[in-house]
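queue> pop job 88
queue> type: inverse folding (structure -> sequence)
queue> payload:
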């Protein structure tokens, strides 16, 4: 079963907390701080492998998580770092964030390894805070939280050329003729329900990977037929071989226009790929007349082929191979033309905002929200007086007091930062 799209969640491990401890033994008077650092949380990596050709393994494994790092301990004992998790995905997998659509990785090379979710750094123990002015620190850091992401995995097959067209125009038959794909063919629509790959060889010995796409119909980009499931696979093809039947059962030129409209509507610049227009089933009665009329409407001459007589087969292969050798790779949907990962403007603007904002919950309650301020808060251990002072000093340094006053906070109002509450004083 071809599973080529799935949604999963990944969670990297939290860093271990730093330890607050002091040396106690009979041989050492006035032992100083000896709390160790926490260990790093486990990260999650994806690795592209060629021995898997479907995302079937993710059909039931919807959550991938790494372990947390161990907490630090007394006697300067560091916590163990958690093991990283490496997940194997098929070559050709595109990883993107569900919320923003931002592409995180395009894994098209065998053995490629990409960091998907970074484990949290371990917090420092109180031994790390010892200075000449503070010889007895009673503060430590919590470990940084791991990353939590909902991801879309899409498998986009690696093919140099893709055969497109309405159902039953001879795509699978052509693939069987030019390669050893042995694809199922029959005289009814949608016999191809998944992309098929074959290696086509020209008579001068050149080879390229050819994909037979399931038949498209009008409205495929909206989910009609099978096309919406497989239009994504065409994105990697440098050349499209557009099959149009001359059997007389349908209007060839109208079919040609309909398929091209579907490519445009998919909004991935598929229509910009060079097309080789092929008139199929030329062994049928009246095919020559229909092709002549079709070519007049096109404004150029299509290549006529017949799988029964092998007419035009070599011409199609040579033309495809010649184009593949000179056409560069096209960027995937969601990537810049130069092939770099595209960062969506909305996401970029979000990251450039202030590190926090003040929200008014009611007349006497305010909340501090923001990814950066919440992340810093999460590493400050506020279970000691020194930890509380460190947090208050941090909030003062980033101007929270002035922001609260500007937002209308009065003496005695409650201020909330995640699970921490304090009273505002003017």
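queue> result:
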């Amino acid at each position: 079963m071809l599973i080529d799209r799935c949604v999963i969640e990944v969670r990297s491990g939290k860093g271990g907390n730093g330890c607050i401890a002091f040396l106690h033994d009979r041989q050492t008077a006035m032992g100083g701080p000896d709390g160790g650092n926490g260990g790093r949380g486990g990260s999650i990596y994806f690795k592209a492998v060629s021995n898997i050709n479907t995302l079937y393994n993710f059909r039931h494994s919807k959550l991938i998580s790494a372990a947390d790092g161990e907490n630090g301990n007394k006697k300067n004992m560091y916590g163990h770092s958690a093991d990283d998790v490496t997940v194997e995905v098929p070559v050709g997998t595109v990883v993107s964030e569900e919320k923003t659509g931002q592409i995180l990785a395009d894994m098209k090379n065998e053995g490629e390894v990409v960091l998907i979710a970074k484990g949290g750094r371990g917090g420092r123990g109180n031994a790390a805070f010892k200075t000449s002015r503070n010889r007895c620190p009673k503060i430590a850091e919590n470990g940084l939280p791991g990353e939590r992401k909902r991801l879309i995995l899409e498998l986009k097959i690696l093919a140099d050329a893709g055969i497109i067209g309405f159902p039953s125009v001879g795509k699978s038959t052509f693939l069987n003729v030019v390669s050893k794909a042995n694809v199922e063919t029959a005289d009814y629509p949608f016999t191809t329900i998944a992309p098929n790959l074959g290696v086509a060889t020209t008579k001068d010995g050149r080879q390229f990977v050819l994909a037979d796409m399931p038949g498209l119909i009008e409205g495929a980009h909206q989910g009609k037929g099978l096309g919406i499931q497989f239009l994504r696979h065409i994105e990697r093809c440098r050349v499209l071989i557009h099959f149009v039947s001359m059997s007389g059962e349908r209007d060839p030129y109208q079919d040609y226009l309909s398929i091209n409209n579907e490519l445009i509507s998919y909004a991935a610049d598929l229509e910009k790929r060079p097309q080789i227009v092929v008139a199929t089933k030329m062994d049928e009665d009246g095919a020559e007349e229909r092709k002549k009329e079709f070519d007049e409407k096109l404004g150029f001459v299509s290549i006529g082929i017949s799988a029964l007589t092998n007419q035009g087969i070599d011409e199609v292969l040579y033309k495809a191979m010649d184009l593949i050798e000179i056409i560069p790779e096209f960027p995937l949907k969601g990537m810049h033309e130069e092939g770099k990962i595209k960062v969506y403007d909305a996401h970029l603007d979000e990251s450039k905002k202030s590190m926090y904002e003040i929200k008014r919950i009611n007349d006497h309650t305010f909340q501090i929200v923001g990814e950066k301020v919440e992340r810093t808060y999460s590493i400050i251990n506020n279970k000691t007086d020194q930890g509380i002072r460190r947090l208050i000093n941090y909030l003062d340094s980033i101007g929270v007091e002035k922001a609260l006053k500007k937002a209308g906070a009065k003496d005695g109002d409650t201020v909330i930062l995640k699970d921490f509450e304090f009273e505002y004083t003017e």
